[in-house]
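On to our target:
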Amino acid sequence: MNGLKYVRPGHGFEPNFPLFAKRDVNGEKEDEIYTFFKSRCPTPDGFINDLSNIRWSPVRNNDINWNFEKVLIDHRGQPKARYTAPYTPADILDDIKGLMTICQKERKGK
C-alpha cells in the first residue's frame, strides 16, 4: 500500500477499491483465474521471447510472458482477447468499445 501512497502515483493516494494480493500466473501454483484466462485466450505472440526470464515450472505454451499482459473480459465474465505487455489500453480501445456495444445491445433486448 505504501508503494501506492508514496511512490506510484504518490501524493497520499489511497485506493477506494479492493486490491489483490500477489498471485502466481504460471507454473504449478498458478491461480485458477489465470488458468481460466489462458485456457480461453492463447498466447498473443505464440511464443515466449526470452527463455532466460522463465522462473516457473512447468512451462506451458500459453503461459503469460511478461508483466502487464492484459486480458479483455466481457460483461459476462468471459475472456475475449489477450494482449502482450507493450499494448496500452488506448491500443485496444476499439476492442473495448466493441464489447461495450455488444453489452448495450443485449441489455436493450431484455
Notes: The CA atoms of residues 93 and 99 lie 10 Å apart. The chain has a mean pLDDT of 88. Helices lie at 2-7, 32-40, 93-108. The first strand starts at residue 70 and ends at 73.
